[in-house]
Amino acid sequence: MIKFEHVGLRYGVGPEVLSDINFTLEPGSFHFLTGPSGAGKTSLMTLMYLGRKPTRGLVSMFEQNINDMSRAQLGALRQKIGVVFQEFRLLPHLSAFDNVALPMRITGHSESEVKSNVDELLEWVGLGDYKNALPLTLSGGQQQRVAIARAVIARPKLLLADEPTGNLDDDIGFRLMHLFEQLNRMGTTIVIATHSQYIMERFGHPRLVLEDGRLYMHDNANWVQKNIEGVY
Amino acid sequence: MKAFSLLPLTFSRNRKLGVGERKGGYDLPLHKSAGSHFLVLLVGLMSFLAMMALSATMVLGGVTQHWSSGLKNKVTIEIPAQKPGGLLRSAAEIKELALSVEALLKANPNIKALHILEENDIHDLVSPWLGDDVVLDELPLPGLVSAELHVRDKDKLESIGKALTEIASDIRLDTHESWLEDILRLAGTLKLSTLIVTLIIGATTIVAIAGAIRSRMAEHKADIELLHLMGASDLYITKQLQRHAVVLTLKGALIGVLSGLVILLMLSAFGGSGEGATIPGMHLSASQIIILLLLPGLIALIASQTARVTVLRVLGQMP
Ligand SMILES: Nc1ncnc2c1ncn2[C@@H]1O[C@H](COP(=O)(O)OP(=O)(O)O)[C@@H](O)[C@H]1O
Ligand SMILES: [Mg+2]
Question: Which ligand is nearest to the CA of A39?
């Protein structure tokens, strides 16, 4: 599903934020991505949703090297990825409904399909009464639920969520985690960046740990250093 | 686990403020952008000017056609009042010569019509220059025969000229060629300048639309990037901005062209145009008016393509 080989990323002329990242995620897997603030979780997610190209190394998505893909192919690939951004990135002038509807409209679904799916999902995340509300009039937690609904509405093959439960009470957080697990059981590959020790322990999925720009695998039993060969 | 529907509603149900409306299939709030009015106004002005330039070209085309078709097949034969030796011809002499000219030309199959100008015809011709109360008897007047040809042909004209000199060596055939050519050249230059003006107007409009689209995209950069990251095709994004550009320019162009049309109709009403007038008035045919009314469509098409190229160029910079 995702394969990173010797991937490095720097912003401008700054230091390498990610260096020599190597990992492979199998289709249908569920991972947590964790690490201290500023470790590069969001940056790694950005590479995974093709928001940036790495400054070095190879990234393959859906068994294809992204450098070999045409613009149209990249677009089609992005449609298969749902993203919950850390800062939500809702369109401020669009209602909750239209924000959630975006991925379906982009993929050309009919308005009647859009309506029934979006209504149902908004109802499910508890925002049935806020369909027409603009994001800025919603609380942080409500905005986060809109962002999550938007990420999952088009049934993505890969779901990337950047601290999706950060603004939520634990019980809402759990409910959303259950939604992610349900999607995972239906075949969606999932990566969730989180700080929450509590959630990681509660759900027990393997962890990708970022530290000082390097990635380590942690499968709950023992730490595995994936970068042993990373001697320059 | 608590159900979501039981969550406390922290947001008061003020349904007016903070209600999002997605207008006409736009994901971007393009209709709210400041500067839209400016573009409408500018396009309005430009289409007004384009309309004026275009109708000037059409009217000019009509005028030159009028002049050239009126003069093209006409020649004038002049029998000078003064003989080559310096002696004056008498009226009777001139009359006689004119009749022989007439006889000669009548035999020519290329001559459609012939007319010997009488004294009062000549009076009409010279009075604008000499005044109405001029007494022609005291003036040595040349004899004039005007002839209309079936076809204007250089060789045929030359042979007529030659035959005429056999009647009297100083009889001249005036083909109006030189001043007709001057006028046509002048009209051609005017047409060319209005064409250049139209092109400049078009280029200005394109630059203005491209600039407006660029600033619109800068204004909504984050939103456009997001659409792009969600996998929206370039076409999906382009279509929205293209539609925006078309709506604005159509608005402007309709305003410009309709007000231009009003002005033109006023000009043609006051300008007057008699059938035989030397300079026909601002007169446009129905088909020409239809062409002018198609102008907004053409401008909208230009706007649409300009927007498309601009958006694709900006999108091309996204990974
Ligand atoms: N757009 C950016 N431009 C420059 N530096 C950035 C940018 N985004 C992140 N960084 C830097 O990269 C490092 C990792 O940031 P980030 O990926 O956001 O970490 P995390 O999500 O784990 O907190 C930080 O030092 C941050 O300052
Ligand atoms: Mg982050």
Answer: 1
- pLDDT at position B45 is 93
Ligand nearest the Cα of residue A213 is 1
Q: Which residue puts its alpha carbon closest to atom 4 of ligand 1?
A: A11
Asked if residues B128 and B142 have their Cβ atoms less than 8 Å apart, the reply is no
Residues B280 and B271: their CA atoms lie apart, in Å, by 9
Using a CB–CB cutoff of 8 Å, tell me whether A163 touches chain B: no
With a cut of 50, say whether residue A62 has pLDDT above it: yes
Distance between CA B14 and CA B26 in Å, rounded?
A: 24
Relative orientation angle of helices B221-229 and B295-315, to the nearest 10 degrees: 70
Positions in chain B whose pLDDT score sits under 70: 1-21, 23-24, 66, 68-72, 126-139, 178, 271-283
* Residue burial B288-302, b: 16+ Cβ < 10 Å; e: rest: beeebeebbeebbeb
Across chain B, the runs of DSSP E, i.e. the strands, are: 74-79, 111-116, 143-149, 172-174
Per cent of chain A over pLDDT 70 is 94
Q: Which domains does chain A have, with CATH numbers?
A: 2-224 (3.40.50.300)
Reported as a single tens digit per residue, the pLDDT across B220-270 is 899 999 999 999 999 999 999 999 999 999 999 999 999 988 888 887 777
Helix (H, G, I), strand (E, B) or coil at A69: coil
d(CA A204, CA A218): 11
Domains of chain B as residue ranges with CATH: 2-68+180-317 (no CATH), 81-170 (3.30.70)
**What per-residue string of b and e applies to A56-94 under the rule 16 or more CB within 10 Å gives b?**
ebebbbbeeebeebeeeebbebbbbbbbbbbebbbbebb
Per the CB < 8 A criterion, the answer to whether B27 and A102 are in contact is: yes
Of the CA atoms within 13 Å of residue A23, those in its CB half-sphere come to 26
Task: Quickly tell me which residue has 């199959």 as its tokens.
Answer: B109
pLDDT at B228: 95
Percent of chain B's residues with pLDDT above 70: 81
- Answer with the residue of higher pLDDT: A145 or B36: A145
The identity of residue B126, as a single letter, is: V
Lowest-pLDDT choice from A12-26, A172-186, B6-20: B6-20
Q: Is there a contact between A21 and A57 (Cβ–Cβ < 8 Å)?
A: yes
The pTM of the full predicted model, rounded to 2 decimals, is: 0.75
| A102 contacts on B by Cβ (under 8 Å) | 27, 227, 230
Structure tokens at A142: 């409500």
Contact residues on chain A for B314, CB-CB shorter than 8 A: none
Question: Does the beta-carbon distance from A172 to B4 stay under 8 Å?
Answer: yes
What is the reported pLDDT for B131? 67
The count of residues in chain B is 319
Q: Which has the closest alpha carbon to B53: B250, B252, B202?
A: B202
Residue A108 in tokens: 């050309």
